[in-house]
Design brief:
mainly alpha; Muramoyl-pentapeptide Carboxypeptidase, domain 1; 2 domains; 7 helices; 64% helix
Length: 159
């Protein structure tokens, strides 16, 4: 029974997590890596599988599921190797100078004083984003995003 539960976990967790990447190859690689790690841990903890056996099953399941899913079905963002500093997708959006500059410009128009619209994230921009998010009942994380830009655009269209 324990072996069956372990096998289910080795297969199920990569199904949920093999989701980083924008194309089947990226998603397959990340799914395989996550699956192998998960399988190895389950194999080590349960004794129902060997570490290598768990890793192998997890890698195959995760890689296959990662390659077969689309980013519309489940999306954990870009793989770490695709971002500049090993950051998440939201942080990667911060490196998009055009997006940041547009957000800075819009925040300035609304009186939030983000500093110069230079496309660089700094303390003034972070503070302005946080104040805008709080004032508009948004998740306060201080991160520039496409969603924030759309919200700002809608706000400016009403003004």
């Amino acid at each position: 029974m324990l072996r069956c539960k372990s096998l289910m976990l080795v297969v199920a967790l990569p199904l949920a997590l093999g989701a980083c990447g924008n194309d089947p190859a990226e998603r397959g690689v990340t799914g395989a890596g996550i699956g192998a790690g998960t399988g190895a841990v389950i194999g080590a903890l349960t004794g129902g599988l060997s570490i290598a056996g768990g890793a192998l099953i997890g890698a195959v399941a995760g890689g296959g599921i990662g390659a077969l899913t689309t980013k519309d079905q489940i999306n954990l963002g870009d793989p770490v190797w695709k971002t500049k500093s090993g950051s998440t997708q939201s942080s990667a959006a911060a490196s998009d100078h055009t997006l940041v500059a547009d957000i800075q410009r819009d925040l300035g128009k609304l009186g939030y004083a983000p500093g110069a619209a230079d496309g660089k994230m700094g303390p003034a921009t972070d503070d302005a984003i946080r104040r805008y998010q709080a004032d508009n009942s948004l998740l306060v994380d201080g991160r520039p995003s496409v969603e924030l830009r759309k919200h700002l655009d809608a706000k400016l269209d009403k003004a």
